[in-house]
């Protein structure tokens, strides 16, 4: 990876950072009395354009999601190395894989749970479950279905896909040959494992689980 290719994207990212919510913005949001007050506070920030489109204050997550997706779209457009952005965006792709499978198993429309990532082949992946066609992420979905069929426990899907997500992250970090990325992924996995152990202990899970 040629770091010189990231000089301009780095400068642009610094400019984007100036539009992020400040400490005082968060303090003001914390002190708001209700959701309507919080929305009014957000209207005085970089979120104002998306907030103004909301039909009701209770739909605030639509504005937050749109801002998130717009940000990642800009990041992908400005860099020649997608894997740098993938390190942070990949969790949304794997979240979508879980939704695809839950839609398939439950036979329900879970459109509201998806992150609308432009390059996520949702329809192709859904079709591949029945057809066996090979598309991006189809192998992960098929293997997750095999895990689910063993015990019909939806939680097995989440556990399996989470593992695949971290394996994918490790692969990206290795391919980048950037020590910072490798350290980030290893730390993320370690902290996730610690949180998982504590959660299992609180739930009185067995050591086998």
UniProtKB/TrEMBL annotation:
InterPro entries: ATPase_csu/dsu_sf, ATPase_V0-cplx_csu/dsu, V-ATPase_V0D/AC39_subunit, V-type_ATPase_csu/dsu_dom_3. Keywords: Hydrolase, Ion transport, Transport. It is an enzyme of class 3 (hydrolase). It comes from the Bacteria. The keyword Ion transport applies. The keyword Ion transport applies. Its EC number is 3.6.3.14. One of its GO terms (molecular function) is proton-transporting ATPase activity, rotational mechanism. Gene3D superfamilies: ATP synthase (C/AC39) subunit, domain 3. Pfam families: vATP-synt_AC39. This is V-type ATP synthase, subunit C. It comes from Peptoniphilus indolicus ATCC 29427. The gene is ntpC2.
